[in-house]
Amino acid sequence: MSTITNLSGPRVEPPAGTKIEKLVILSHGYGSNGYDLIGLVPHLQRAMPNAVFISPNAPEACPGAPLGYQWFGLTSLSREERLEGTLRAAPVLDNFINQELDRYGLEDKDLVLSGFSQGTMMSLHVGLRRKNTPAGILGFSGAMTLPDDWQQDVTAKPPVMLIHGDMDDVLPIQMMYDAKEALKSVGINVETHISRGITHSIGPDGLQKALEFLQKVDR
Q1: Which of 8-12, 81-85, 156-160 has the lowest mean pLDDT?
Q2: Of 47, 55, 74, whose CA–CA distance to 63 is shortest?
Q3: Domain Phospholipase/carboxylesterase/thioesterase: where (predicted)?
Q4: Rounded CA separation 33/43 (Å)
């Protein structure tokens, strides 16, 4: 019988005595690890001081990246490779989300999924297939994985914010536009922000837009 890999990684809880009302899962990109995005927490806490932030290491070690992990292997940006990898990793992230919601006595309405690059692919795929609707999905420099007839798999339609640099040389900005149109096609409220002159990273303006989105869904 197969077992689902258990994830672990750094977490930041609010100060002692603060009632935890939100859970933010930060999914890192290819070849990185949980300590990358956890560095954003001091900024993100300004918008969501009542949240616990967790950035799990992806389930697979990344070849050629010491201390790096991957949600799935990438040798190209082909649809087939992304699809196979996303479908394989999705149950792992979904299981982790369930464990952490149970740990803090929270529900999907208290959940924000955020990711960078490959982590955005995972956040969108898993978030739209949750049994109950999360508070929101925040994606940086990412894309969507679209299986055949993917619209039939959508069980949740949370608000989505996509942030992308117009000079991204890893995942071209067209991938953000494609994701936006796909999300709109199933009736999801999606906002986008383009960071001018930014490559495959998060610019100050993008971080500000992220804070505004978190404030909006912290209700």
Answers
A1: 81-85
A2: 74
A3: 18-217
A4: 19
Lowest mean per-residue pLDDT among 78-82, 118-122, 135-139: 78-82
Q: Which residue's structure tokens are 């055949």?
A: 148
Has residue 3 got a pLDDT over 80?
A: no
Least Cα distance to 97 among 6, 189, 20, 207 occurs for 6
Which two structure tokens, joined as six digits, stand for 118? 């490959």
CATH fit for domain 20-217, picks 3.40.718.10, 3.30.1120.10, 3.40.50.1820, 3.40.50.280: 3.40.50.1820
d(CA 168, CA 158): 26
* Sequential DSSP letters for the chain: ---PPPP---EEPPPTTPPP-EEEEEE--TTB-HHHHGGGHHHHTTT-TTEEEE-PPPSEEPTT-TT-EESS--SS--HHHHHHHHHHHHHHHHHHHHHHHHHHT--GGGEEEEEETHHHHHHHHHHTT-SS--SEEEEES------TTGGGG------EEEEEETT-SSS-THHHHHHHHHHHHTT--EEEEEETT--SS--HHHHHHHHHHHHHH--
Q: Which tokens hold the place of 123? A: 């956040």
- Residues 137 and 44: their CA atoms lie apart, in Å, by 14
| pTM listed for this prediction | 0.95
